Every structure is written in C-alpha cells, then in structure tokens.
Amino acid sequence: MVTLRHEKLKFTKVCSHLRVKAFLAKIPNGWLVRCMYDSTRVYKRSAILFFPDSKEKWVLENLEIKWETISETRTANHVISLSRLKTPEGWVVKEFMSTRFGSSQYDGTTTLNLTYVDDIEHKWIIT
Asked: Superkingdom of the source (predicted)?
C-alpha cells in the first residue's frame, strides 16, 4: 500500500480508476477520501471530501474499494466520467473531465470534483 502523509493524517491508497488514485484516512466519525489525478502532463488535480461512518463499519485492512461508473463519454479529444463509490452511509460521487491540447476552447483542461450523497439505505439505483 502507498501512504501519503499530510501533516498528522495518514492517507492509504485504496484504488485507481482512469488514472485517478484514491486514498483514505480515518478520522473521528468517518473518513476523508482524497482523489488525485496523476498525469504525464504538468497539470495535476486533486480533491478531498469527508464522508460519515458513525458506526465504524469500514476497516481499512479488509476494505475493497471499487468505483461504479454512472456515465462515461470518450472521444479522441476528451473524456468525461461520472462514477460513484458506495460508503457506509451514502455515496461519494466523482466527476472527472480531461481534454486534449488543441482540441477545443477548453484546451488541455482537467477537472476532478467530489461530492457526498447521503443515502443510508442505499436506495439510489442506476438504470
């Protein structure tokens, strides 16, 4: 496992998806998820988000993390991906977009965004 140290937090790498690496750090009442886009270009993006785990269901050593694709568009010039990660009390949703240099008005743009959706019963079904 790869570990990132950020002051007094210990982030452990748990998975990769579309060159976006995910790291987790346990904190009181939940977790911090940090996603980092690792590119061969100069540009790198990262995002960090808290999600609750009030009953401490997750144990890092036994954790299998997998992003589920909600939607994805790929062309020769760009990738736009929306995916989600099931957490003990809801979902972390990740949006990732990357465009090629010289392909559009958004030349070489890369974005990485995270948000949390509270859904303790996991009723959100993708159809």
From this structure: Bacteria
**Which pLDDT tens digit goes with each residue over 67-110?**
999 999 988 888 899 999 999 999 999 999 888 766 566 566 78
As a whole number of angstroms, the distance between CA 48 and CA 103 comes to 29
CA distance 68 to 85: 6
- Angle at the Cα of 120 (from 96 to 116), degrees rounded to 5? 25
What residue type is assigned to position 44 of the chain?
K
